[in-house]
Design goal:
80 residues; alpha/beta; 3-stranded parallel sheet
Length: 80
């Protein structure tokens, strides 16, 4: 699990690094090296409520080789 506050293309709008947050690209590039099988991206901005999971997963797949999950608020994720 890792926060990914915004898409890399939106970093000038949201300025995540000034707030000690990350972009999807940064998280995925960093964690891809660890061969993690499932990455949950949370604590995201709210300007894309209906398609955030699609947009975040699309960017993530460019930099992360395995499964990416972008839950909606109050989603329950079962960890086995």
């Amino acid at each position: 699990m890792h926060e990914a506050f915004c898409l890399d293309a939106d970093k000038e709008i949201f300025k995540p690094y000034e707030k000690k947050h990350s972009t999807v690209k940064y998280v995925c590039e960093s964690l891809n090296k660890l061969n993690i099988k499932n990455l949950i991206l949370y604590h995201t901005e709210d300007t894309h409520p209906n398609d955030k999971d699609i947009l975040y997963k699309k960017e993530a797949k460019q930099y992360f080789d395995n499964n990416v999950i972008v839950p909606k608020d109050l989603d329950v994720i079962e960890i086995k």
